[in-house]
Amino acid sequence: MSGFYFSFGLTVVGMVLYHLSQKSVPAGMNPFLVIILAYVIGIALCVVCAVGYPGKKNLIESIKLSNWAVFTLGAAAALIELGFLLAYRAGWKISMAAVATNAAAAIVLIPIGILVFKDHLSWRNVVGLIFCIFGLAMVMRD
């Protein structure tokens, strides 16, 4: 299996586990402590994986190479965690929350991708994006 398909599959499995877990967190728990506990488990898993990862930089070298993006990635991850946890507590359906937020984020990222990262969109991409916008509108209506 190529790295492209492996990473895609890993992400899908992770997203399914993520949303099932988020939807199943006990309502009485402090949302910030939920995130702290989840990150402790995530950090432990990453430490185990990092030890055996071949040919890559160690912790000190990685810290030296890090930039603003590493820190904003941490903040973004915490915001995503808190946002989904609160969305599910507010009554969002598990089948709609991920679809709606991913489509909305894609719409915001399109101009950023084009202007900042010089992404190019084909006509097929544009037609697909129109369907995404239409689909988001349909999903958000009850």
Average pLDDT works out at 91
The total strand number stands at: 0
What series of H and E elements makes up the topology? Answer: HHHHHH
Please report which band the strand proportion falls in: under 5%, 5-15%, 15-25%, 25-35%, 35-45% or over 45%: under 5%
Distance between the termini: 40 Å
Q: Rg to the nearest angstrom?
A: 18 Å
Give the overall shape. globular
What does this structure look like?
By secondary structure, this protein is mainly alpha-helical. It has two domains: 1-92, no CATH class; 93-142. Helices cover 80% and strands 0% of the residues. The chain has six helices and no strands. The protein has helices at residues 3-24, 31-52, 59-65, 68-89, 94-115, 123-140. Helix 5 runs antiparallel to helix 6. The chain is globular. The termini are far apart.
Give a topology summary.
Blueprint: H1 3-24, H2 31-52, H3 59-65, H4 68-89, H5 94-115, H6 123-140
Helix pairs in contact: 5-6
Kindly list the characteristics that best describe this protein:
142 residues, mainly alpha, 2 domains
Concise structural overview:
It contains six helices and no strands.
